[in-house]
Amino acid sequence: MWIFSLNIITLVIICNNGLAYKAAVVEYYPSSEAQPIDTINKNIEEYRQLLDSAKEQSVDIIVFPEYGLTTLVKDPEEYAVEISNSSEIISKLSTMAKRRKMYMVINLLEKEKRGSQIYYYNTNLVFNRKGEIKVKYRKINLFDEAKLTPGFANQTNTFSTNFGVTFGIFTCFDILFKSPSRTVFEKNDVTDIVYPTAWISIIPFYHSLSVQHGYSVANGVNLLAANYAKPNNGRGGSGIYLADGKIMENYIGDTPSSKLIVQEVTKQTSRVDKMNCSKNVAFGLPSDLGKSNVSNYMTIPVFNASEYTFQEIDLTQSNFLTTICHRNFCCNFNIKVNLTNVNTSEHYKLMAYDGLVGYNEIQLHIRICSLLFCENDSKDSCGKRQETTSTKFTKITVRGNLPTDNTTFYTPVTLNTYLLSMPQTTYCDSQNGSDTTYVQLSTTKVQQNVLVFGLLGHTQTPIDSNENDGNSAVQASSLLLLLVFSVVKNMIY
Question: For the purposes of burial, counting CB atoms within 10 Å of the CB of 300, is it exposed (0-12), middle (13-18) or buried (19 or more)?
Answer without folding.
Answer: middle
